[in-house]
Amino acid sequence: MARVGWIGLGNMGVPMSKNLIKAGHEVTVWNRTKAKAQPVLDAGAQWADSPKEIAEKCEFIFTMVADGPALQDVTLREDGVVAGLSAGKIVIDMSTVAPEESEKVNDAVEAKGCKFLRAPVTGSTVLAENATLGILASGDKATYEKALPLFQAMGKNQFYLGAGEQARVMKLALNIMIGTSMQMMAEAVVLAEKAGLDVVQACEVIAGSAVGSPLVNYKVAPISKGQYDPAFSVKLMEKDFDLAFAAAKQYGVSMPVTAVTRQFLAAAHASGKGDRDFSVLVQLLEEMCGVER
Length: 293
Prior knowledge:
The protein has helices spanning 13-22, 38-42, 51-57, 68-76, 81-84, 99-110, 125-129, 141-152, 166-194, 199-207, 214-225, 234-251, 256-273, 281-288; strands at residues 3-7, 26-30, 46-47, 60-63, 90-93, 115-118, 121-122, 133-137, 155-160. The chain is of the alpha/beta class and 293 residues long. It folds into 2 domains: 3-163, NAD(P)-binding Rossmann-like Domain (Rossmann fold, 3-Layer(aba) Sandwich); 168-288, N-(1-d-carboxylethyl)-l-norvaline Dehydrogenase, domain 2, CATH 1.10.1040.10. β1, α1 (13-22) and β2 (26-30) form a beta-alpha-beta unit. It is globular and about 65 Å long.
């Protein structure tokens, strides 16, 4: 079994690291707020006092943080991961960040004689709990093969995409599809409501139709109830859309539908919904159209 370090214990990090413990690995964790680590410590993890200590103790070091600045902070600061590395260790980032932010961390890790894998995930907190996430990986292929048993403890679908930053771009591509799909669902649901249909039944019909998908099925319950507890917040989706626009500029891609959806996300944020799940786009459009539940 491997000695694994885990940095970042948010909605996704907690169940993912717990699955590594269930698979029999020795897991050491660090998080900015120690209280958030308690469920993982209760499951058998050990605590480290800094990201540097994680890197010193572990052969595989995972990071799962909110954004690129957070990744650079936990890896590059004075008591960060890179400071604790010794040759031959493997750093794996599972966050959603810009390719250029990722490259900076890669260069610092490789300068210590170590390898860096980009491995963002696709899937909800439910899939994280069930160890059925999709994992999009890129980096050195031999290093990926070493890490694969760890990925398999957390995810059902494994994709190796190339030697560089391909996994970062693929994750952004998926997230713009997820975000724009939710805006389309909002428009369909509100149209049905305005015509007098029951919102619960409308959601059931959508889920059971040709446009039904895992995403639609995840969101039927919160939309039907009008309860938007954050599995993935509006703010995080805004961040990912902005990263996607930067990539689109780099590669010369037009994304007009994505641009329109970004404006609705901004409206949701501006109306006090930034910390709600991004499916709150339904509620935003209800308010704009005079629909009251």
